[in-house]
Amino acid sequence: MIELPAPDLSPAPTTTTTPTASQSPSLSASPTTESALTWRGRRLYRHGVPHRILSGGLHYFRVHPDLWRDRIRRLADLGLNTVDTYVAWNFHQPREDEEPRFDGWRDVERFIRTVGEEGLDVVVRPGPYICAEWSNGGLPSWLTGRDVAIRSSDPAFTSAVGRWFDELVPRIAALQAAEGGPVVAVQVENEFGSFGDDQAYLRWNRAALIERGIGELLFTADGPTELMLDGGTLPGTLAAATLGSKPDAARRLLAARRPDEPFVVAEFWNGWFDHWGESHHVRDPGSVVDALKQIVADGGSVSIYMAHGGTNFGLWAGANEHEGRLQPTVTSYDSDAPVAEDGTLTAKFFAVREALGARGPVRMPARTPTLPPASVPLVHRAGLLAGLRAVPAPTSTGPRPASFERLGLDAGMVLHSARPRVPAGEHRLVLTDVRDRALVFADGAFLGVAGPDQRELPVRGTGATVHLEVLVESLGRVNYGPGIGGHKGLLGPVLVDRRIVQGWDSTPIALQEWSTAELTRALAAGPASEHAGPASEQAGPAPDRAGFAAERAGFAAATVDVETPADTFLALPGSRRGLVWVNGFLLGRYWDIGPQVTLYCPAPLLRAGENTVTVLELERLGATLELRDRPELGPPEEYVEEFG
User: Fold this and answer.
1) What is the pLDDT of residues 564-591, one digit of tens each?
2) How far is CA 276 from the centre of its chain?
3) Do 96 and 45 contact (CB within 8 A), yes or no?
4) Predicted confidence band at 508 (pLDDT cuts at 50, 70, 90)?
5) pLDDT tens-digit profile of 427-451?
6) What is the C-alpha to C-alpha distance for residues 246 and 262, in angstroms, rounded to an integer?
7) Beta-carbon neighbour count of residue 248 at 10 Å?
8) Are residues 185 and 264 in contact, defined by beta-carbon separation less than 8 angstroms?
9) Which of 10, 34, 331, 519 is deepest in the core (most CB within 10 A)?
10) Residue-wise over 112-141: b if at least 16 C-beta within 10 A, else e?
11) What interhelical angle do 347-355 and 285-296 show, nearest 10?
12) Dist CA 311 CA 601 (whole Å)
């Protein structure tokens, strides 16, 4: 249980950056009003009264808007007094030629107001880079696709961020505590010390917030190492830490560097996210509580990351890179949080609540209603390439394959087509740089899967031209480290032996933008035109290579009858890898390499009566769609993130 120190009602001055002679006026802007949160003597105050931030991460873009209030109330029941959210720029402005949107699911102002209505404060983290295991770390691919130094004082970057902040920041400023709203703190950039050391950029970011109306507490957040704090902190701006373990060591390091500042952990990783092909990461509640008690001791403040993770709906899941290998993040962002992906109150919820000394009743039910388990037929309707070709899209023609960025495509797939002449006999088809995975066809015959670990496929020629088709899929844009902003597609030459294949048609397949109309076209395309067996005078590998079977790849549909909409968890036994839409909404990716087995489908996506589930299976379709009443996120593995 937390014991607050006796109130000290003496004035607590706002701490702001002190300009230096080398700073221009635009880089030395300071808040003009006193913020709700201030500090002195290693203590945090709220309007002059000793205060702890007891916050939880909850991202509006990962939770259906109809469930925002439910999840906020669950965080309040956890014993928290604050909600922390990032703002994902690419979620609001996926295309440069369109104005940022702040309606519907993107109505961040409504989310913030809802938190305030539930009696909680709000911490906003506007980036523009957010990490968050979100595609491209929240940066739009139309920006990172240019020759621009991202997250730096490069004017090509700051001018674009400035235009975005012109739209976003005044909306946040209008909801600050000084204006009667719930926003009490705003973060300057995000874990910048893990990325770079451009102090001019950090000062620009801070000034950009202030000049657009932010007067509440500003802070930076970085890992608790000398290297990261050197790169990511600013004089006079509160330095917070992000960590999963060893909070006492972090406290000592920050106290040595910032002796007057309170100890604030802007992210306490009480769980962890998952990558495809790895284990489901969990953390024992006892381990979480032990670290949490150390953080909040002696006046410490904390934000539990995540308190409720939610879901990487659509194709918004990011990826990591490790030693050059892509590690795509799964659709679920459950993160072993105290409030599970579907809102369930977990054992960790009650352990954390007890540790925080919450005294009020738990108002929300431990579980939300679910549909009864069921199994429905999954009917194959159209072949893979036939279905994709049925949806019109502008085709780019050039001597080399067009990248996703050149095509203005953020996520999804690109279908590349060329007609090289292949001499008689066996030859090597080499795809020198695929980002991230490609299905390769020659005259309709499936040749195999190409990627970083499989760049070469056999191809047999007759001396005639071959209709070569390469379907390239992005598995998620890197969200952390120097690989942020990396391009997608066929980025290197395609070779027949040593000769480059030139003359390509490249067609973007913007699956994330497809509506019911596009899905209907794809489903109506009919049987496969591609096949897994030999084409006329063109033999490919065996039909089951990499699990591909043309007669069972492509588009399928299932009908689900619902009496009263409720949550459900979708599973596709026997299916290999693909995407699922529910009533035209792209739920996310599934993949039989795990760990995630079920996809969470929240009740607001369903309607009473008939519901249509559409599946794009890329390799081999199973026969059924299962509705389950509980999630299956894979075999658990205990994991605690540490900074070495």
Assistant:
1) 999 999 999 999 999 999 999 999 999 9
2) 14
3) no
4) very high
5) 999 999 999 999 999 999 999 999 9
6) 17
7) 12
8) no
9) 331
10) bebbbeeebbbbbbbbbbbbbbbbbbbbbb
11) 20
12) 10
Contact 633, 590 (CB under 8 A): no
Q: Assess whether pLDDT exceeds 70 at residue 318.
A: yes
d(CA 339, CA 180): 29
Q: How confident is the model at residue 348 (pLDDT cuts 50, 70, 90)?
A: very high
Q: What is the pLDDT of residues 5-19, one digit of tens each?
A: 333 323 333 333 333
pLDDT of 532: 46
Q: Classify each residue of 308-340 as buried b or exposed e, where b means 16 or more C-beta atoms within 10 Å of its C-beta.
A: bbbbbbbbbbbbbbeeeebbbbbbbbbbbbbbb
Two structure tokens written together for 497: 């032996």
- Pair of tokens at residue 140: 């739009």
pLDDT at residue 377 above 70? Answer: yes
Give the contacts of 82 (CB within 8 A, at least 6 positions apart). Answer: 53, 54, 55, 56, 120, 121, 122, 123, 184, 303
pTM over 0.85: yes
Question: What would the two tokens of residue 74 be?
Answer: 């669950």
Angle between helix axes 247-257 and 285-296 (nearest 10 degrees) is: 20
Task: Retrieve residue 423's tokens.
Answer: 């001499």
Report the SS3 class of residue 424.
Answer: coil
Q: CA 446 to CA 470: how far, in whole Å?
A: 10
Q: Order of strands across the sheet with 585-591?
A: 379-382, 554-562, 609-617, 577-582, 585-591
Res 540 pLDDT > 70? no
Smallest Cα–Cα separation from 54: which of 65, 62, 41, 44?
44
Q: Which two tokens stand for residue 134?
A: 């979100």
Alpha-carbon distance of 96 to 90, in angstroms, equals: 10
What tokens were used for 381?
């309707």
Query: With contact defined as beta carbons under 8 Å apart, do 338 and 349 qualify?
Result: yes
Residue 371 has pLDDT above 80, yes or no: yes
Q: What is the CA radius of gyration of the chain?
A: 26
Q: How far apart are CA 195 and CA 203, in angstroms?
A: 16
Strands 121-125 and 183-187: parallel
Residue 69, phi then psi, degrees to nearest 5: -65, -40
* Residue 592 structure tokens: 């039989």
**579: which 2 tokens?**
């995407």
Tokens coding 249: 């060591």
Quote the pLDDT of residue 13: 35
Known catalytic residues are 191, 267
Closest CA to 265 of 136, 161, 123: 123
Helix (H, G, I), strand (E, B) or coil at 372: coil
> Any idea which residue has 């691919």 for tokens?
141
Would strands 396-398 and 445-450 be described as parallel, antiparallel, or unpaired? unpaired
What pLDDT sits at residue 30? 59
Residue-level pLDDT at 535 = 31
Which residue shows structure tokens 């965080």?
75
Which residue carries 């030139």 as its tokens?
502
Residue 189: pLDDT above 60?
A: yes
Amino acid 442 reads A
